[in-house]
Amino acid sequence: xxxxxxxDREAQMIGVYxxxxxxxxxxxxxxxxxxxxxxxxxxxxxxxxxxPGTFAIEEIEERKNFLGRPPVANVDKVLVVVTIKMPxxxxxxxxxxxxxxxxxxxDPVVVFNKIDLLTGEELEELRKWTEIYSDAGYRVIKVSAxxxxxxxxxxxxxxxxxxxxxxPSGVGKSSILSRLIGVELETREVSEKTERGRHTTTGVRLxxxxxxxxxxxxxxxxxxxxxxxxxxxxxxxxxREFLRYRCRFPDxxxxxxxxxxxxxxxxxxxxxxxxxxxxxxxxxxxxxxxPERCR
Length: 295
Description:
The structure is a single chain. The radius of gyration is 21 Å and the shape is globular. The strands form two sheets. A five-stranded mixed beta barrel has the order 1-2-3-5-4. It is of the alpha/beta class. It has three domains: 2-60, CATH 2.40.50.140; 66-216, 3-Layer(aba) Sandwich (Rossmann fold); 231-294, Orthogonal Bundle (Ribonucleotide Reductase Protein R1, domain 1). It contains seven helices and 13 strands. 23% of the residues lie in helices and 25% in strands. It has helices at 31-36, 91-103, 121-136, 151-157, 173-181, 261-267, 273-282, and strands at residues 2-10, 13-18, 23-29, 44-51, 54-60, 66-68, 71-73, 77-83, 107-113, 140-142, 162-166, 204-209, 213-216. The longest helix has 16 residues, at 121-136.
């Protein structure tokens, strides 16, 4: 049987990309497949070409992960797109998104878009947040979709991956997607009054680009609560820099326990105050727990 990737899934339509021919056929699942599971974009499938435009799906390979919004399987990397302005940067939203995508066993990448708009203090703010997230262990890539800056670096980094774009509305996800795949997609400008974009994505589609790389868009998020996806005690596992430090208790929540390596690292400046503050806010802890240097 031949192997393909479901890259288009909307209503009853299924598009299967064949790696050997680098073309997309209409996928028709056998009844035995539909009895076992639903088919989603990102699914690797096995089957046969029954005519020049049709691929009969016989099997779906086991998924390594599954994102519910939008429904996409086997995601390697999530590009969490943010901006310093238009709209204004929200580190709390970003840290919620990073924790959620870590929870779903993907590799989140922080992408700062619209860097061409920044001057003076805004550039210094970009430098500060780049340092914070790089030190936390994330890949940070700075781009300007409008000026095509940083897009080549992004393309090279994503080679061979299934990726999705995520982030707040209005940060330019569709513009980045257009640059990566080389096709202009429908976008709407950010409102000058609200500084929010209007989402234009319908259905779930992965676009081929580069060398065996695929990328899809997601809805814009105005807010995300990590506790909707995980238990309060799990959040600590998805702050990467926390995992570098040992605590007296293996289930330490890094709040009030004695001999907590994470709190000590915050006090010593090895973990940023901004990240630790957001952690406390996510787990709904009292901010009075912040070390003196962070207040």
